[in-house]
Design brief:
The protein has 520 residues and is of the alpha+beta class. The chain has 18 helices and 21 strands. The strands form 7 sheets. Strands 5-6-7-1-9-14 form a 6-stranded antiparallel sheet. A hairpin with a 5-residue loop joins strand 5 and strand 6. It starts with a strand and ends with a helix.
Length: 520
């Protein structure tokens, strides 16, 4: 299948003179400063974060005590829509305020190059918002693309994958847990120190999210964070598809790491949908993800259990060995992912380099590139500076999205980090939606017909036609390229032309019909 892919990144926000308890309101103000054209009515009717892929709906989602306290200190918003201040953008993406963080959700993509360039475009858009906010308020504002504030709070970088419902939920959870626990060895962003627990050993962690993982599977995202999040919001035909919602990953500055994080999991999903299952499970997945994060030497072994009694299998494996097993399985299966061969080649090379000498990967893996900068600082200061405070400052500076301040951007400028997309491609992504997915329809309406729009979501566009309100249902437009339809849309000069173009593609599973309000 042609798998839809997406990223949702919550950005760290630091505003001079603003306390944590005020940040929900000020994050909203940052989003409201978005300088791009936008439509602001998001339809929440299609979202149910309490629905679980294991076949039930939880009564409530847990919230950490600190967030409840901060929320009570902020002005009471009349609705979730008012609090979120949604901005649906011409590129088909969504920008909004989420629990005190500007969050950018990429448009749906089918290629890794598209996904990376829209993710990078999101960095620029959030940075533009911050610049306009500073101009309006006079408050210096810093945007960091990371997952921790170093005070015990973690915010997410979520991934979305279209998957079929052919795999039972429990099978999917068991099969993905070892992969997700070990993927951090090439997708981790690195972190100085510890927020949640005191650990023995290294003070540098491979991953920023690992110490916040508390369980194997859960529908919650703010507490009881899981290796496999079980939220069931398909945004597609729920009889055929799930949207796999992954919250365990780090926010990557490295384009290579972003592409590999998503590309490797996409190929693993192809293998699982083809009938492959790993021959082992982790004995204690939560302990494993933490142990691996605490071991930059990559020598730690984690206990595993054989799935089948027949055949021999080690009782413990390294993260590299576990990743090789998944890479080998992915290599045996076909995939519609355009960059399949690139992912397999890069996956193999990275695992080989990590085995021989992790420093070889300093040109592509965030946790290694960042650690190298920290080590250089320690050598230069000869250990005289305050170790924790100074090193955490370097950590944050690595993730600073300001090209003039961010240490990652300095590596890019020096040509010391691998690129996956060009600056021109990122600039284009600021304005234009991906041509191959339904996001083009959303972006087209925002660019050309937002005065006629009533509401939008990932799967529908409601708008006012000449003969009444209409809904364009995109829930069937998820498997396969939509370039022919989207090129017809691009040539449409009026709303009538747009409607005619959409009607031509009813056979693909779309429909245009009167809304409930119109029918009444």
């Amino acid at each position: 299948m042609t798998r839809l892919l997406g990223l949702e990144t919550e950005y760290g926000l630091d505003i001079d003179g603003i306390e944590p308890g005020q940040m929900i309101a000020e994050s909203r103000e940052v989003v409201l400063c978005c300088p791009q054209p936008y439509f602001d009515k998001w339809d929440y009717a299609h979202e149910d974060p309490r629905r679980d892929i294991r076949g039930y709906r939880v009564k409530r989602l847990r919230r950490p005590a600190s967030e409840v306290e901060y929320a009570s200190a902020d002005p009471r918003f009349r609705s979730i829509s008012e609090e979120h201040a949604d901005r649906i953008l011409p590129c088909g993406a969504r920008l909004y305020n989420d629990h005190g963080h500007p969050e950018f959700s990429t448009p749906e993509c089918v290629s890794l190059q598209d996904l990376v360039r829209y993710d990078r475009a999101g960095e620029r858009i959030v940075r533009q918002c911050a610049a306009f906010y500073t101009q309006r308020t006079g408050r210096a504002t810093r945007i960091v693309k990371n997952n921790t504030d170093f005070h015990g709070s973690s915010y997410g970088s979520h991934e979305s994958y279209l998957v079929t419902r052919t795999i039972p939920a429990d099978t999917l959870i068991a099969a993905l847990a070892p992969f997700l626990a070990t993927r951090q060895i090439f997708a981790g962003a690195g972190k100085v120190g510890h927020d949640v627990r005191r650990h023995r050993g290294s003070s540098y962690q491979i991953s920023q999210r690992a110490e916040y993982i508390d369980t194997v599977a859960s529908v919650d995202t703010l507490t009881r964070r899981a290796l496999v999040n079980t939220r069931d919001e398909p945004h597609a035909d729920e009889n055929l598809y799930r949207r796999l919602h992954i919250i365990v990953g780090d926010a990557n500055m490295s384009e290579w790491a972003t592409a590999m994080k998503v590309g490797s999991l996409a190929l693993v999903l192809d293998a699982l949908e083809a009938g492959w299952t790993p021959p082992f499970t982790l004995t204690n997945p939560v302990a494993a993800v933490r142990a691996i994060a605490m071991d930059p030497s990559l020598s730690a072994l984690v206990p595993v259990d054989a799935v089948h009694r027949s055949g021999s299998h080690p009782s413990a494996m390294s993260a590299i060995e576990i990743q090789r097993a998944y890479r080998d399985a992915a290599g045996e299966c076909s995939s519609d992912l355009r960059e399949r061969d690139w992912v397999l080649s890069e996956w193999t090379e990275a695992l080989d380099d990590l085995m021989e000498d992790p420093e070889r990967c300093g040109d592509r893996i965030d946790w290694i590139a960042k650690r190298r900068m920290i080590q250089l600082f320690e050598e230069h200061t000869d250990g005289q500076a305050d170790p924790q405070g100074a090193l955490q400052s370097i950590d944050l500076a690595y993730h600073d999205t300001d090209p003039a301040e961010g240490l990652y951007h300095a590596l890019e400028d020096e040509g010391a980090i691998r690129r996956v997309v060009t600056d021109d491609a990122i600039e284009q992504a600021l304005r234009e939606p991906p041509i191959a997915t339904r996001a083009f329809v959303r972006g087209h309406f925002v660019s050309h017909h937002r005065d006629r729009m009533i509401a939008a979501s990932w799967s529908e566009i409601a708008f006012r036609s000449e003969d009444g309100a209409r809904v364009f249902d995109m829930s069937g437009l998820v498997d396969g390229s939509l370039e022919p339809m989207n090129r017809d849309l691009a040539a449409a000069c009026s709303l009538a032309d747009t409607e005619r173009a959409l009607r031509r593609y009813r056979a693909t599973g779309t429909r245009i019909e009167g809304t409930k309000q119109d029918q009444e």
